[in-house]
UniProtKB/TrEMBL annotation:
Zn(2+) 1 binds at residues 50, 54, 56, 173. It holds the Pfam family Cyclase. Its cofactor is Zn(2+). It comes from Siminovitchia thermophila. It catalyses: N-formyl-L-kynurenine + H2O = L-kynurenine + formate + H(+). Pathway: Amino-acid degradation; L-tryptophan degradation via kynurenine pathway; L-kynurenine from L-tryptophan: step 2/2. It is an enzyme of class 3 (hydrolase). The keyword Membrane does not apply. This is Kynurenine formamidase. The active site is at 60 (proton donor/acceptor). The keyword Iron-sulfur does not apply. GO terms for molecular function: arylformamidase activity.
Amino acid sequence: MEKKKWIDISQPLTNEMAVWPGDTPFSFQLSYTKEQTGSVNIGQITTSVHSGTHIDAPFHFDHEGKKVHELDIDLYIGTARVIDVTGYESVGRAELEPFGIEGVPRLLLRTMTDRDLTVFPEKYTVLREDVGPYLKEKGVRLLGIDTPSVDPVDSKKMLAHHSLHENDVFILENIVLEKVEPGNYELIALPLAIEGADGSPVRAVIRPI
Ligand SMILES: N[C@@H](CC(=O)c1ccccc1NC=O)C(=O)O
Ligand SMILES: [Zn+2]
Ligand SMILES: [Zn+2]
């Protein structure tokens, strides 16, 4: 039976895309044109490692935490479950309990509808501090979310990030799930092997199982 097609759940990286307030804007430009080199066009990008769809390394919020090149790539390839938790200001144990996520290794949360990627969202769903222990109990190793962060934009304590990390749950942010049905999928969302980094852009794709 023909395998289903892969679905791209990554934000396009464009010069118009919104990034975290005050962070490095995304820019692609040509460094050299084919006319100049006589053979090829060569481009360059300037970006925060948190622009668009990306993973956080623990080093992002824990100075002693693992850096991107130290992460277990198995986390970023394998089965995942998409659930729809749109409409909540925050998500924790109570909102997740009804979904019965026992034994789900990677959980992808759909919280947004009609997100405009050129505007940083004024409000977005965040995760509560009780989410880490709950996800650990259920065996979740990777938590993906369609928001710019698992914490509020003005957070300094980064309580959701620490709660997830203390419970061995890794973080994938800014995925795009608006056209994705809840259900079980294969996920690939590999970070780049950036030495010493606190995060990495990823091309996240899923295929229905
Ligand atoms: N995607 C990031 C957003 C973030 O935390 C951040 C990104 C750039 C500059 C500051 C940030 N956070 C807190 O000040 C995150 O991991 O939540
Ligand atoms: Zn991030
Ligand atoms: Zn984060």
